[in-house]
Amino acid sequence: MKKMIPDFERMKHNGEKISMLTAYDYPSAKLVEAAEVDTILVGDSLGMVVLGYDSTVPVTMDEMLHHTKAVRRGAPQTFVITDMPFMSYATLDLALANAGRLIKEGGADAVKLEGGSYIAPIVQALTRVGIPVVGHIGLTPQTASQLGGFKVQGRDVESAKELVADAQAIEQAGAFLVVLEAIPRQLAGHITSSLSIPTIGIGAGLDCDGQVLVYHDILGLFERFKPKFVKQYAQLGQEAIQAIQSYNKEVKASNFPTEEHTFGLSDGVIQKLYGDK
Ligand code: KIV
Question: Which protein residue's CA is at the shortest distance from atom 1 of ligand 1?
Fold first, then answer.
């Protein structure tokens, strides 16, 4: 059965872990739903793992919409959260219009925004008009260059305190979940116990209320780089190359198609077409 916001609240309350995985299209969404993962994130990591960009920055609203629609078709019974791409929530008006499109046209159940206290007024405006919001703090890939690159955040007292304040501001603004990315385990644990909404960690240790990873990372389909927090559960990229090599060899050697993959004509039809020749 499709999990909804009160289910995530209940899961935190009961100490039941929340699983989240990204998906970007119909087939990946179908597999994630079949595996009964609690919620799908149509992450703007789409830009890197599917569209081949160097970062998430170039991802557009049209791309997020296109992929959210496909995910919704593949996973009709799963709670779908879509990332708002860089600059799509730079002002209140933009945020309202774009989040509205992801929900109304894309079929997302909620949207996710990167940023701390400074983003709280936008979170509040969205939740006030009925758009469920997920926060994302710590390492925020859309603004990674301002953070000095893809680095662990909150390692000193000042930045750790800032992240606690950010998490609280996001919760007070009305978010129902918050993603904690690349922060020390003890800080994630502290934030998790100081919030009443669930935390979802990625590179934030075991003490979060749930975990999220990228589909292509856990299946071994993205080899450009592998952060410490990624666990590969399969090497499908290697298997795919082997399968494609086998196909290529069989075509070149005229070993494919065989009779099994070929349609034929009955002798009677052949006779009428070509006579006795
Ligand atoms: O874009 C994404 O996939 C994300 C997660 C990795 C948290 O934001």
Answer: 43
| CA distances in angstroms from 5 to 142, 154, 177, 198, listed in the order given | 26, 28, 9, 10
**Tens-place pLDDT, residues 204-245:** 999 999 999 999 999 999 988 889 999 999 999 999 999 999
**Which residue bears the tokens 């190359």?**
241
**69-103: per-residue pLDDT in tens?**
999 999 999 999 999 999 999 999 999 999 999 99
Distance CA 78, CA 36 (A): 8
pTM of the complete model beyond 0.85: yes
Testing ligand 1's pocket by substitution, the residue of 45, 63, 142 carrying the most ligand atoms inside 8 A of its CB is 45
Question: Which of left, alpha, beta for 252 (phi over 0: left; psi -120 to 50: alpha)?
Answer: alpha
Instruction: List ligand 1's pocket residues with C-beta within 6 A.
Output: 22, 41, 43-45, 83, 179, 181, 202, 212, 214
